[in-house]
Write a structure and sequence with these properties.
Largest sheet of chain B: 6 strands, mixed
Radius of gyration of chain B: 14 Å
Largest sheet of chain A: 7 strands, mixed
Helix content of chain B: under 10%
Number of strands of chain B: 11
Structural class of chain B: mainly beta
Radius of gyration of chain A: 14 Å
Strand content of chain B: over 45%
Oligomer: heterodimer
Strand content of chain A: over 45%
Structural class of chain A: mainly beta
Distance between the termini of chain B: 41 Å
Shape of chain B: globular
Order of helices and strands of chain A: EEEEEEEEEEE
Chain lengths: ~120, ~120
């Protein structure tokens, strides 16, 4: 398996523009997580899905952020309009929860480094 | 609200030393605890996962222990190597309801192993 795939790897945009980050989870995984990492706040969970349904979005900073998962193999995180304080590395992770508890492990993608000027 | 603290924030050791990284958490009602490794500019790689009912997990030169009642975990690295240099992150998942999978991360320990 190719692992979790994220695109783009780097994104530079200007304040006010719309930004869309993409994620393809590991095939067969039914949980998908979006995280944000900054020097000041570390790693924070933004939202997670189970079977394509958003379960907890309490970490989404504000209405400018939205996430969707139209099918089991694709998710997007959108920021509109973007602001300089949104600059961070955004990670997507996936996992599956079956009879074997060892599969609770979350597998992370390489991240998207977002810079908003 | 769960809070996770890692000590020390940074550690520099000579190659071959055994070392211990510490993680503490405020809410003991956890489902599991995971240790991750992050290399500069890269994503996270899971090293070990300990379920709340377990006391420790081992993988090669790594051993992680969990004392849920005291809210502590340690990651022991034996015979450290320069390739172990990375940031090590501890994360806990709280039990119950929508908390499944919701990881709370510590700030990490930056480890440097010099030859």
């Amino acid at each position: 398996d190719a692992g979790v795939i994220q695109s783009p790897r780097h994104e530079v945009t200007e304040m006010g523009q719309e930004v869309t980050l993409r994620c393809k989870p590991i095939s067969g995984h039914d949980y998908l997580f979006w995280y944000r990492q900054t020097m000041m706040r570390g790693l924070e969970l933004l939202i997670y899905f189970n079977n394509n349904v958003p379960i907890d979005d309490s970490g989404m900073p504000e209405d400018r952020f939205s996430a969707k998962m139209p099918n089991a193999s694709f998710s997007t995180l959108k920021i509109q309009p973007s602001e300089p304080r949104d600059s961070a590395v955004y990670f997507c992770a996936s996992s599956t929860r079956v009879a074997s508890v060892s599969t609770d492990t979350q597998y992370f993608g390489p991240g998207t480094r977002l810079t908003v000027l | 609200k769960q809070e996770v603290t890692q000590i020390p924030a940074a550690l520099s050791v000579p190659e071959g030393e055994n070392l211990v990284l510490n993680c503490s958490f405020t809410d003991s009602a956890i489902y599991n605890l995971q240790w991750f490794r992050q290399d500069p500019g890269k994503g996270l790689t899971s090293l070990l996962l300990i379920q709340s009912s377990q006391r420790e997990q081992t993988s090669g030169r790594l051993n992680a222990s969990l004392d849920k009642s005291s809210g502590r975990s340690t990651l022991y690295i034996a015979a450290s190597q320069p390739g172990d240099s990375a940031t090590y992150l501890c994360a806990v998942s709280n039990a119950g309801g929508t908390s499944y999978g919701k990881l709370t991360f510590g700030q990490g320990t930056i480890l440097t192993v010099h030859p």
